[in-house]
Design goal:
The chain is built from seven helices and eight strands. By secondary structure, the chain is α/β, with parallel strands linked by helices. The chain has one domain: Spore Coat Polysaccharide Biosynthesis Protein SpsA, Chain A (Alpha-Beta Complex). Strands 3-2-1-4-7-6-8-5 form an eight-stranded mixed beta sheet, with helices on both faces.
């Protein structure tokens, strides 16, 4: 997708840890810039912004923000509150996206308040409450701010799922999956936490 075909009204938010692979970030920013009218890179506190800038290339639509807190949810919420557009997508820096996937989520947000994108070989076919994807998640900005944004916790995506469920909002599941460039962090803990969340009242 050429850069001129970006979606107006869409902000892409990418949290970036100090040890993130710069080549991965460069590739992801290039893809996001082609489909979003604003790209916000939230870098971990203590990282020199000048050391990050060369990896991001030059574009007035790309901004670097310095994370204020110490958790991933802090970084994500800074991006959420700083975004200027009515729709936002959150992208992990280790995603390997294909052209058109951000745009597809943006189109789904016309009819849905939240959209989650799974990873792996197939789309989940039965998820009672939906799920919050920590690697690729889309939202209507105003609704997400009203819900409270990303919840704090050991697994911020699981805690955020519970908050969205309590608020009565639904999460749509994208009809495609994405690839990750490395194994999922804490897979066993995450899987058990998700199972436990389905067994509790919101």
């Amino acid at each position: 997708m050429p850069e001129s075909a970006f979606f107006s009204g869409l902000s892409a938010i990418i949290p970036m840890r100090a040890d993130e692979d710069r080549d991965w970030v460069t590739d992801l920013v290039r893809t996001a810039r082609g489909e979003a009218s604003e790209v916000l890179i939230v870098i971990e506190r203590g990282v020199d912004p000048l050391s990050v800038r060369p990896a991001l290339g030059s574009s007035e639509r790309t901004k670097i923000l310095m994370q204020r807190g110490d958790t991933k949810s802090d970084a994500l919420n800074l991006g959420l509150l700083s975004a200027v557009n009515q729709h936002v997508v959150f992208l992990d820096a280790d995603l390997q996206l294909e052209s058109g996937q951000i745009g597809a989520v943006r189109e789904m947000l016309e009819e849905n308040e939240f959209v989650s994108v799974g990873y792996g070989l197939r789309v989940p076919n039965f998820v009672p409450l939906g799920f919050v994807s920590g690697w690729f998640f889309g939202a209507r900005r105003s609704v997400f701010v009203e819900v409270g944004g990303w919840s704090a916790g050991y697994l911020e995506d699981v805690e955020t799922l519970k908050a969205i469920a309590r608020s009565g909002h639904k999460i749509a599941i994208a009809p495609f999956t994405v690839k990750l460039r490395r194994p999922v962090r804490r897979p066993a803990t995450k899987f058990l936490s998700v199972l436990a969340s389905f067994g509790k009242r919101p």
